[in-house]
Amino acid sequence: MKRILVVGAGGQIGTELIPHLQKNYGYDNVIAADLKDEVVARLSQNAIAEKLDATDFQAYGELVKKYKVDAIYNMVALLSATGERMPDVAWNINMGALLNSLNLAKEFNTALFTPSSIGAFGSNTPHTKTPQDTVMRPNTIYGVCKVTGELLSDYYFSRFGVDTRSVRFPGLISNGALPGGGTTDYAVEVFYEIIRSGHYTCPIPEDTYMDMLYMPDALNALTQLMEADPAKLVHRNSFNVTCMSFNPRELFAKIKERVPHATFDFDVDPVKAQISASWPDSLDDSCAREEWGWNPQWDLDAMVDDMLKTIAQKLGK
Ligand code: AKB
After folding, report:
1. Contact present, 190 and 249 (Cβ < 8 Å)
2. Strand order in the sheet with 167-169
3. Residues labelled catalytic
4. Number of domains in the chain
5. 255 in any annotated domain
6. Is the full-model pTM beyond 0.70?
7. Do residues 138 and 120 touch, judged by C-beta distance below 8 A?
8. pLDDT digits (tens, 9 = 90+) for 158-207
9. Hey, which of 184, 209, 269 would you mutate to test ligand 1's pocket, going by the most ligand atoms within 8 Å of its Cβ?
10. How many Å apart are CA 107 and CA 112, to the nearest integer?
């Protein structure tokens, strides 16, 4: 059985990825690492957990060696909106963790997954049915990191044979850990606010479309791609994946159908508005479907039903 190290395990994806991997590979074969003491303490209640600053090459290497790791999932990232507030920090963290992951994957012969994002695209990318291979000139530091990461990961594959794989995640909707600092976060925040207070003020313009994925599909994308037959992969870093595209108005209408007293207004954040306008309205994910069988299960209605139910339970409402 494979031994997997997840770095940045305490974030929105990592928190749900750990139990998903434990289910697939066994509890003892999944190691959750994070920078913050309080997060490591939380993770250690349900997983083998270690404290790690992924920008510290030596400490990171010691963990890979200690656990005889076969695959690294590098989930360390400062997201798009936070990145615009502190571009230097975003570059140092995002690229520092990636470069260390690539060099350790090379040294210890491990596979490596690092998520890319719709943030890798920019305002001169075709916005509708954005193709797998297209113009990629992002307008954010987050996007610059993601494009650089895709290129570096492909380089480490072709030059050194490192088994690097990646998907371009759209906005991820989940009911575990909250996202933080992203442009697509509104699509999660709205559920908490509507259940708590019945009202949500949205920072994204009402007619801005972005692709989204519900977390169970995102987790399946990760394990499916990492288990895919390498002979079938024409692409590696990174695959478009999506299963829904909507704007805030459409999402809020779906919520209102189910929660008639819900009210919404808009207080547009200019940074988030600019970022979201530069991203695709909808992705073409046919390469992922053809090369490794990507087949998402959740649509908008099913996701809204599930989010309202699970978050109401979580908040005791
Ligand atoms: C963000 O909004 O920054 C992220 C992403 C789409 O990569 N959720």
Report:
1. no
2. 116-117, 167-169, 239-240
3. 142
4. 2
5. yes
6. yes
7. yes
8. 999 999 999 999 999 999 989 889 999 999 999 999 999 999 999 999 99
9. 184
10. 12
